[in-house]
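re: that chain from earlier
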Amino acid sequence: MPKQRLAQSRDLGWGMGYVTERASGRWQSRWFDGEKYKAKTFPSREEAEDWLRDLSRARGWQRPERPSFDAAFVYFIQSVEGGPIKIGQAANPADRLKNLQLGCPVQLRILGIVEGGLMMEKSLHRQFAQYRMHGEWFDAHPKLLQWIEKTAHIVP
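^ sequence. v structure.
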């Protein structure tokens, strides 16, 4: 069962918490106290969430702001020599390209971008799932290349 983040302070060194379901069917509130993670187990999700919410309020933790899906783009990055295509999302695809380039031995380029964000990225990952190679990297299948050419803003 995926984690559900309930509270996180703005200072990442204090106050991170989430609720998770244990294999036993019980629920656990976990939080970071500045040195290590601590946990408390509850019979229901609601009790675990309520307890963590109360702890968050008592310690003055702030709920993290939701990311703005309107301010992001989905990008398509590929080596200038061809090969796999990375479908990812970032507020600034040019900066993302620079960061990816730091760890890559071949020259990368942005094939195209579309407006969107996390939801658009996930939708494209599902749409082209049969071409997924690893993580966010997809085979440069003609159908994917055609979609990029037809739909995305092409970056010269």
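Residues 45-59 form the longest helix (15 residues).
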